[in-house]
Amino acid sequence: MNLEGQVRIPSGCAIAAVISKEGKRMTGEAITEAMEPMHDRSNGLGGGFAAYGIYPEYKEFYALHFFFNDRDTRKNCEKFLKERFEIVKSELIPTRKIPEITDEPIIWRYFVAPLKSMLVSMQLDESEYVARTVMKINTEMHGAYVFSSGKNMGTFKAVGFPEDVGVFYKLDEYEGYSWTAHGRYPTNTPGWWGGAHPFTLLDYSIVHNGEISSYDANRRFIEMFGYKCTLQTDTEVITYIMDYLIRRQGLNLEETANVIAAPFWQTIENMDDEKEKEKYTYLRTMFPSLLVTGPFSIVFGFNGGLMALNDRLKLRSMVVGEKDDKVYIASEEAAIRVMEPDVKDVWAPAGGEPVIVKVKEGVDL
Amino acid sequence: MNINAKNVDYKDLNEEIRNVQGDCTVSECLGQRFMAAGMSDKTITVTGIPGNALGAYLNGAVIEVMGNAQDAVGDTMNDGEIIIHGNIGDAAGYAMRGGKIFVKGNAGYRAGIHMKAYKEKKPCIVIGGKAGSFLGEYQAGGTIIVLGLCDDTGSDIVGNYPSTGMHGGKMYLRSDCKNIEFPGQVSVKKATAEDLKEIEEDIIKFCEHFECDVNEILNSEFTIVTPDSKNPYKQMYVAN
């Protein structure tokens, strides 16, 4: 079978998310059910979830989730990991056998800490060291694929409909303060386990509904900085753009949103505030190759929060609702109403207008 | 007759609605798309959240939704009426060519995109609140009315780039539109009493549905937007 990266078929999709601003943890049941009314936005070739705050007992360690094609690959990969990390726990990720999900690879997780001696000799900080290791495994180790690599968070994804993927991974047994979800309708690539959303690097995760026209331009730029886009899946490049702008360039979330969904020059020209004008001009001039064009609605997850963003022309739908400590985001209002029937004032953010929700400061996650 | 839509698939739900003799209500709707598509002969009252493309190809039936609706309400509708007692998502009235849509609240992006008219077919959308960007994009006919009622935000009545590519029909905005930038191929004027006469009937209907004051609305300043000429593309490519 041709995998992602080998074939390009010229995506409708569904996204949903929920976060508690108080950092209260909830099981994955509600977010799984939220995907049901949006069933027809996916075609069964990919579903996935990112969950934050699910591994409090291992929160000092990077949780590496792996797909392995076979046992030998896992053994070899484990040998490689041991040279670079202290492995504090290694286990099969628990799953339920259900008829809707078949042909699963070996799905494994390691909780690891980078070896101090390696960090010193390579003169890297922890996160860069982990990111490079993930890139190395995903590009060089055939049959092994890291699909989650953050601390106190995890991604769960598969080929199937999202509501089935949630049941398969027993998400009702995890508790997180923030969840994102995705149902896939691949239009460019054939769909395999690694190609399902969310796409992650460290604790950054992206779920995406859309089709990025600027993929190649973005990819060429980001690959200059050590990122490797191997899947031809446009969402992958957004994850790396977020990592590059936030972690490596030190931009804040609003600035990042203003790079990837930059206002039109005409809109900038008409701004009254000179300082604002200068800021937007600066961002567009500094990072022209990271402007993402074409239709998209995304939810970006990170430790402590979420950001939702539409393309500046708003060619995909996205609504936001709020009740008590929780904020809900979804492609359709119906999905929000599943999670909270009494949500008040469901509203649609404008194109290019980021919605940023963070857990209150001082809450121990 | 009431149809409970809870956990009913959209195809089965439409089948049930189609089989009802006379009017019906649909309760606990949650995201079922294409509701009442192509139907012509009944009044359907909906509670819950209908899915995308509510009343697509509607051909004379009346749909009343007691809350919000999602994207593409009245996609390509031909005749009938859709009444929404809440807000609607993007691309409402997409390519509609007849019938009327009344919305109490706000509309998302691209309301009335490519709506058109032909002979006696004159579609109309009345939006009680505000409209998002690209209102009436490529509008080729019919009437789009935005009232900007219940405004507490102070934002403009319509987002960016209204009437982009408009080449037919009329757009009425209950505002002086002084902050709004329109494209070059449309003419933007203060609506006269004669202009307002043309939409009086639709405003009266809107007020009946949502219990508002007709005179208060009609006595306000409206801006009317129409294409600049009968052939806005004249000499754009060749001298014709």
Question: How does this structure look, described?
Answer:
The complex is a heterodimer of chains A (about 375) and B (about 240). Chain A is an alpha+beta fold and about 375 residues long. Chain A has 11 helices and 18 strands. In chain A, the strands form 4 sheets. Chain A has a 7-stranded antiparallel sheet with strand order 8-3-10-1-16-15-17. In chain A, strands 11-12-13-14-18 form a 5-stranded antiparallel sheet, with helices on one face. Chain A has a 4-stranded antiparallel sheet with strand order 5-6-4-7. In chain A, strand 15 and strand 16 form a beta hairpin. Chain A is globular. The model of chain A has no long low-confidence stretch (mean pLDDT about 95). Chain B has an 11-stranded mixed sheet, sandwiched between helices. Chain B has helices at about 10-20, 195-210, 215-220, and strands spanning about 1-5, 25-30, 45-50, 60-65, 80-85, 100-105, 125, 140-145, 170-175, 185-190, 225. In chain B, strand 1, helix 1 (about 10-20) and strand 2 (about 25-30) form a beta-alpha-beta unit. Chain B is globular. The N and C termini of chain B lie far apart (about 60 Å). Chain B is an alpha/beta fold and about 240 residues long. Chain B contains 3 helices and 11 strands. The interface of A and B includes residues 314, 317, 334 and 347 of A.
